[in-house]
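A quick aside before the break. I want you to see a complete sequence-to-structure record at least once, exactly as it would be stored in a machine-readable document. Don't worry about memorizing anything.
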Amino acid sequence: MSQQLIQEIISKVKEKRELQGISNDIIQEILNKYLSKYRINLTAINPSGLKLLIKEIRSELRNYNGRFQINLQDRDNLIGDEDYDSLLKTHTSTSERFEDYRSIKEFISSCKVKSILDLGCGLNPLAMADSSVKYYASDIREDELKIISRFFKSNKIDGQTFIYNLKNITQDLPSVDICFLMKVLDILEKKSHKLAEKILSSIDTKYFLISFSTKTLSGRPMNHIRRVWMEYSLKRLNYQFKILKLKNEIFYLVTKSSQN
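That is the input. The structure line, written in tokens, reads:
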């Protein structure tokens, strides 16, 4: 397979502004899976097939990342000013969550957290990290991880950032007190929930903080905000949980059985 052609495809995918910050490695990973799944010979693909391939890769990337991006144009100035509160409002999820962070911190306060693993973090660490906690922040967007790294350094926070694709969960993640999965699991899979259960059983943590939106993509309130499939999975794993319902999200604070 021509590496030059792969790089050309990655460049074409990233011509869309909302996808420009995504790691090249993640895009190539999705490309390789697509080629393998449909047995496509990249060197023999015709122009219309190549156009469709790029469209499909963009669609998958938007499915679990791009739709959270808003107001990207102002970010450079905000980064220069280190205006992290305003930066939180350039990301849909953290903007919606902005007024609720105090409630979220109170919700997990009993866990006495000293280390956090934030998977699919977005800009969440700008609100949740502080100097008393070791913070591991992971996402597929290099641009947002750079913002977080700068925030860690400016605020003397013991933090690390790294690219990670949750669709390929492995057991090489750090051991922590709590793992955040905020608005992540609904995006990773639509029909089966095997991947979600694999993630929950693979990560070495005492607690999980898992959240889901209480609104549809069109912004309407959902009729049923609790995720019954999630609660069944937690019971199968013998994990305990309690629930916090906020305006835009429902949170599950999950305690693994070894902590009972």
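Two observations worth writing down. The chain has a mean pLDDT of 89. Residues 86 and 141 are 19 Å apart (CA to CA). We'll return to this after the break.
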